[in-house]
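Hey, weird one. I pasted the Polyketide cyclase sequence into the form twice and got a warning about non-standard characters only the second time. First submission, copied straight from the form history:
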Amino acid sequence: MKRTFTTTRHIDAPAELVWDALFDVARWPAWTPTVSSVERLDDGPLRLGSRARIRQPRLRPAVWEVTELVAGRSFTWVAKGPGVATIGSHRVEPTATGAAVTLGIEQTGPMGALAALFWGGLTQRYIETEATSLDARVTGAPTA
C-alpha cells in the first residue's frame, strides 16, 4: 500500500534560481527548519546514484539515493527502511511569472500505510514548510 503527500507553490523568481536552491541539498539546513543536517556521501553535484544522509527533527536519520534526475527540472530520491520505502520528489517548472515548485513524499511497502498513519501529518507539514522556506530563500518572502 502507498500513501502520497504533495504540495505545489508558485515562487516569483526565475525557475533557474529556484532550481539552484532546491538542487543544492547540502545547504537545505540553512534555509528550512525541517532539515537539521545533510551529509553528502559522495562528491560533486547530485547525479543518478548520489546519496545523502539527512537528519530531520522528530524523524530517524535516513540515507536518500537519487533515482531520477532531469537537469534543471526535477529529481527523485528514495530512502529505505524496514518494510517501507519513502520516495521524495522535487519538481520546478517555469511559469509566465516565475516558477511552480511541487514537492512530494510517497510511502510504499508493507509498512508504508503504518508510516503514513503515524507521520502523515508531520510529513505534509514538512513539505509545506519546505516550499514556503524555499520561496523565502529565493525571494526574501516572509515564511509566516
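That's the output from the first submission. The warning seems to come from a hidden character in my clipboard, not from the data itself. Helices lie at 15-23, 28-31, 112-139.
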